[in-house]
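Duplicate of #3305? Posting structure anyway:
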């Protein structure tokens, strides 16, 4: 095999690796998250970063523990703890003593955190409208449905129990 053939094989392999389904899904996810975060900044949450989304996409509106959040987000408890300390200092979450186990602390949203959730839902809706304007409403709905169906069939872990019942992401 000559050098040119080797270069062509390497180029083809690099192209294939850079265009995998995982890469496309990751780039779509990153774009979606960046757009939502940008909108949240415009709505007055300039202190929120992409790294904080790991909490808000897993916390819900009730109380939960650091261990549960870390497990849902598939990150270490230390990493989750660091992010929670940041959000607590920004006033989005608070730690309260668990009424059933006085040794444990529950994490819950503050009023500011609940407002962020409200603004995030509005931002998600706006980003979906932007996507629909670019690719079409029917195509976006089809993509959403096919991805949800694939996730169900693949029996993916770490998704909220009721996620598949939602008609919109």
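Output from current build:
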């Amino acid at each position: 095999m000559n050098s040119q053939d080797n270069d062509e094989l390497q180029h083809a392999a690099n192209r294939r690796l850079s265009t995998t389904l995982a890469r496309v899904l990751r780039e779509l996810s990153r774009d979606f998250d960046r757009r939502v975060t940008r909108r949240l900044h415009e709505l007055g949450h300039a202190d929120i970063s992409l790294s904080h989304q790991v909490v808000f996409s897993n916390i819900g509106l009730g109380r939960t523990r650091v261990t549960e959040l870390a497990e849902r987000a598939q990150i270490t408890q230390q990493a989750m703890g660091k992010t929670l300390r940041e959000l607590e200092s920004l006033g989005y979450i608070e730690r309260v003593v668990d009424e059933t186990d006085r040794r444990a602390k529950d994490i819950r949203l503050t009023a500011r955190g609940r407002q962020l959730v409200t603004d995030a839902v509005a931002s998600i809706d706006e980003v979906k409208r932007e996507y629909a304007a670019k690719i079409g409403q029917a195509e976006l709905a089809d993509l959403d449905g096919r991805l949800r169906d694939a996730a169900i069939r693949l029996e993916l872990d770490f998704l909220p129990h009721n996620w598949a019942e939602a008609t919109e992401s």
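Confirmed duplicate; merging threads. The chain is about 60% helix and 5% strand. The mean pLDDT is 86.
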